[in-house]
Amino acid sequence: MSTVKVKIVYPIVAFILMAGLLGPYFIKISHALNEHEELHCVSKELHIHAVEFDCDFDHYQFSTFYYPEFKYPQFIDEVIITEDIINNYFFLSKYQQLHFVLRGPPTC
User: Fold this and answer.
1) Are 62 and 28 in contact (CB under 8 A)?
2) Is pTM beyond 0.70 here?
3) Which sequence spans correspond to the domains of the chain?
């Protein structure tokens, strides 16, 4: 019985759950891509077109999945640095030779 359960029942239950969760999103995407009429204007004069405001696509919203707030365990203690960080590093030091100083004319 356990082999039948693992090979047949679990994939069927997984497919039903996945279809139940993702089905409405696929329906909404198919409506957005296929069920809107696209009108091409061939008139050469200046005019304004009426906008389609009566779409059922905008009337319903899917709520996001609810995840309860999870408190993460802290493995490392939080250390607050209170002293000032003094940075004495200067990129162009007068003692550092730059890359273009070492260049010279080509020798034969």
Assistant:
1) yes
2) no
3) 2-37+51-58
Q: How do the residues of the chain divide into helix, strand and coil, expressed in percent and rounded to 5?
A: 35, 0, 65
Tens-digit pLDDT profile for the chain (108 aa)? 578 778 888 899 999 999 998 988 888 788 777 766 667 788 888 888 777 666 666 666 666 666 777 777 778 888 888 888 777 665 665 666 666 666 667 776
Tell the residue number behind the tokens 């239950």, with chain if given. 13
Sequence-separated (6 or more) residues with CB below 8 Å from residue 41: 49
Q: Is 20 helix (H, G, I), strand (E, B) or coil?
A: helix
Q: What is the DSSP letter of 6?
A: I
